[in-house]
Amino acid sequence: MASQDDRDVDPKTAAAVATAEAAGPASGENVRIDSWIWAVRLVKTRSVGATACRGGHVRVNGERVKPAHSVRVGDEVRLRHEGRERIVVVKRLIRKRVGAPIAVQCYVDNSPPPPPREAVAPIGIRDRGTGRPTKRDRRELERLRDLGGPGGSGGSPSPGSRPKGR
User: Per residue in 32-82, pLDDT tens?
Assistant: First the structure.
């Protein structure tokens, strides 16, 4: 007799889960970390995953890993990507990219919540219908960008440099 969970599953979801199971490695095989974080949709491309590994942005169980590192069920994967840290625990190994609803079933997400959208809004977004920025508006935007930049001074130009636009 089928359980209640089996009767409530959508046929499309059941087919997708079967596809995910088929995408998993055969017994005795392993899955590379760059391939796994791509397959579960933590990064857009496998090459971005490999670059993140080489740059030290991926840690498995607290250790920096290379792209070819084998991942196992139960490993904790930390990924710094796009200004945010994702912390996931591996539940299922897959090597082929699957749909988002199925990918979520392959890991447990322990990541902190993303920052509010207002906090990450870019500087210089103008209200709709305000037209082109005036010279005064442009100078204010440049001043704001200089304040938020790496130097942070935003004051007078460095010695020996020429003023812009003159």
Answer: 999 999 999 999 999 999 999 999 999 999 999 999 999 999 999 999 988
Q: How confident is the model at residue 154, as a pLDDT?
A: 47
Structure-block tokens of residue 139: 């100078």
Helix (H, G, I), strand (E, B) or coil at 67: coil
| CA–CA gap between residue 157 and residue 142 (Å, rounded) | 13
Tell the burial category of 14 from Cβ atoms under 10 Å away from its Cβ (0-12, 13-18, 19+). Answer: exposed
Separation CA 28–CA 13 (nearest Å): 27
Q: Contact, 146 vs 153, CB < 8 A?
A: yes
Residue carrying structure tokens 């994967």: 77
